[in-house]
Design a protein that fits this description.
The chain is an alpha/beta fold. Helices cover about 20% and strands about 30% of the residues. It is built from 4 helices and 15 strands. A 6-stranded parallel β-sheet has the order 5-2-6-7-1-8, with helices on both faces. The longest helix is centred in the first third of the chain and has 14 residues. The termini are far apart.
């Protein structure tokens, strides 16, 4: 906690997929353990890519985590579960309901260091709640970038692929996957399919008044 106010704070690690968000989260957790701080780690039930009770990176690193119901008031369970923790980490925050915003604020108010990781945009390139709300009130925000698989520029977008083709704008927002379903893309190379005839780059999409 902060030495003068004795309050906690919220840190957000955001960015596109494949940008190293979870790797950075695990780095911070390792440093907390070295400092002999008590740590509690949480993940949404919907994400079982690296095991039901672990968070993991694309490079194979893992950490044990408590699974939390991500819908409705489910995230509120963290408040009781992490009662004795000095550091609370939440991975894939974008899969949780907006109740996670309340959880982060309440934990920080009682002196806990809260570290939240997640992608801040949907495959459409739109804000992916609740992460933008948490970023707005967090003390520290780091936005990571990947490498665009098309042009090699810094990538900030999640390109969803269905059978190798860009996903349609009307597809569900949440689809858990990795390299088989997603690529990192820059703004210009990011594609959102709006009809059955041709893919549309986001920079070409128009919004009529």
């Amino acid at each position: 906690m902060h030495a003068i106010t004795r309050s906690g704070w919220v840190e957000v690690i955001s960015g596109s997929m494949f940008s190293g968000k979870t790797e950075e989260l695990l780095r911070r957790l390792r440093r907390a353990e070295i400092a002999d701080q008590s740590v509690a780690v949480y993940k949404p039930a919907v994400d079982d890519r690296y095991g039901e009770t672990t968070i993991g990176t694309h490079t194979g690193r893992q950490w044990d985590a408590t699974v939390i119901d991500s819908e409705g008031d489910g995230p509120l369970a963290i408040l009781e579960s992490a009662a004795d923790a000095e550091v609370v980490a939440v991975d894939e925050a974008n899969f949780f309901s907006t109740a996670l915003v309340e959880v982060c604020d309440a934990l920080a108010d009682r002196g806990v260091r809260v570290v939240v990781s997640g992608t801040d945009t949907t495959f459409r390139g739109e804000p992916f709640e609740p992460l933008p709300q948490i970023m707005a009130t967090a003390e520290y925000v780091d936005k990571f970038r990947a490498i665009c698989t098309v042009c090699g520029e810094p990538a900030t977008r999640n390109q969803r692929l269905i059978d190798g083709e860009p996903a349609h704008v009307d597809d569900p927002t949440i689809l858990v996957g990795a390299e088989e379903s997603y690529e990192a893309r820059c703004r210009d190379c990011h594609v959102v399919r709006t009809d059955d005839e041709r893919p549309t780059r986001r920079s070409e999409t128009r919004v009529d008044d």
